[in-house]
Amino acid sequence: MRSGSFSVLSAATLLLAQATRVRSSTSYANDFLDPNAILARDFSNITIDAQDTIIAWAEDLAAEGPWSVTNKSFAAPTGSKQDYMSWAPYWWPDCSSVGNTTELTAEEVWTTCPYVVRDGQFNPDGRTINDIGEFEDMANAILYNALAWVLNGSSVYSENVARFVNTWFLDGTTGMTPNLAYAQMQRGPTGQHGTHTGILDLKCMAKVVSGVLLLREGKAPQWTSDIDTALNNWTNEYINWLSTADIALEEKAAANNHGTFYFNQLAVLQVLVGDNAGAKKTLEEYFTTLYLKQITKNGDQPLETARTRPYHYRAYNLAAMITNAKIGAYIGYDAWNLTTDEGATIKDALDYAITLPVGTETAAELWPNVVAVGAIYGDADGKYAQFMSENAGDYPADAQFLWNQPFSDSGLVAVRSTSATGSSGVRQQSQDGGALSVGASWRVLALAVGSAVLALFA
Ligand SMILES: *[C@@H]1O[C@H](CO)[C@@H](O)[C@H](O)[C@H]1NC(C)=O
Ligand SMILES: *[C@@H]1O[C@H](CO)[C@@H](O)[C@H](O)[C@H]1NC(C)=O
Ligand SMILES: *[C@@H]1O[C@H](CO)[C@@H](O)[C@H](O)[C@H]1NC(C)=O
Ligand SMILES: *[C@@H]1O[C@H](CO)[C@@H](O)[C@H](O)[C@H]1NC(C)=O
Ligand SMILES: *[C@@H]1O[C@H](CO)[C@@H](O)[C@H](O)[C@H]1NC(C)=O
Ligand SMILES: CC(=O)N[C@H]1CO[C@H](CO)[C@@H](O)[C@@H]1O
Predict the structure, then answer these.
(1) Which residue, 78, 188, 291, 343, is most buried by CB atoms nearer than 10 A?
(2) With bands split at pLDDT 50, 70 and 90, how would you rate the model's confidence at 418?
């Protein structure tokens, strides 16, 4: 998760500088953006606040980069920090059987004490190695900087993307080895290897690829043929691991959100390397196997409802299903109307999820799904817009409101002076550097006080 947080002060500074409404920083569970739709730059004028949010998030995130697996303090069991590594979040040491008479060092505990699972209880040790959080920040930084490049045209943003890709994936001393052999290790004398749940750590490859496709298809000069070739090379090796390693295949077979996210990752990487036929086969496999059992007739997702935090898990798997369908739509495989064994669609799953109480969980996790479904299936009776305006506050200032269109702004977006906003709806600075736009001054601002951290583990 993000270590740095977006302070009230910096949000206030941003407010004064740009006189815009910027929503607090959020990391969506996952998403895929059709580069052609974005590069057409035919944005609705109601997305102006979302555009400002995207620029702000791009800059805020970029200030924290670059990220690298070599930033961790401990090496993987291979002895190399270039191997991605994370620890299973719910596993704890029990040193009672290993002569715990003298104090063991942390490293001795990790390798000699047997580890046992305590479901739902996070071992704080997990935070001492943060490859997972760094990857998530990097993926978001790439997505928003690529979008900022499209919106603003400044090479600062596209250079950021190239730099972040190079540092995380490609550089000889900081780049990640293309496998997840040490992801979500359980540790202990028999646990010095990754487990299948760790494949989920890299689910946000869909965001990375969305950003890279924008630069590649948009012909950003900073996205050189050298970096493109090198990333394809890395990705081909990783795809090979992801389609053959035992733990990767176990994750692929997982019936719940773990399996759904596996297919996000594999399909989007196949798209990246130009293997659209392979990606289509991958998505077809998901929609003709796992998907069939994931939504019941009434729209419930029983495998998620059974979990400890059902509101979260339903939203989480919905995001993964929507991402699979969006990747499909991009390569000519229409999954939106595909039905499960009980005759339900992704829309039915959303329609059911929005009727359920949030309880003590985080409501915001469902919002991007509501807007995405409304944009794709339509919102003739205004049900989805009503849900958003009643629950999600100033939702048109949320970044995803840009790419999940058309969707009503419920009248929440104030008209700006024509000098500040072009008729195409593309963000432009006003000539005097950004006078307060009419209607914006009285709006309640969603100040960002720390980033909303959506669950990294499932
Ligand atoms: C080691 O033993 C001490 C004393 O009995 C105990 O408090 C501690 O929890 C043990 N450590 C572990 C990791 O089991
Ligand atoms: C891009 O951002 C810079 C810095 O805020 C600004 O000066 C410039 O006008 C923007 N360009 C466009 C096309 O929005
Ligand atoms: C592809 O990756 C392999 C292993 O990481 C490396 O040896 C090779 O030089 C790379 N090729 C290119 C063209 O980058
Ligand atoms: C689903 O199918 C119906 C009927 O064929 C069609 O009108 C609609 O556009 C389809 N929806 C999506 C999202 O593809
Ligand atoms: C967007 O354009 C429409 C049609 O020109 C106009 O009625 C509306 O006020 C505009 N909205 C904003 C937020 O600028
Ligand atoms: C926070 C931190 O230490 N970041 C570093 C991660 O690794 C890259 C590549 O070496 C550095 O540039 C960052 O400063």
Answers:
(1) 291
(2) low
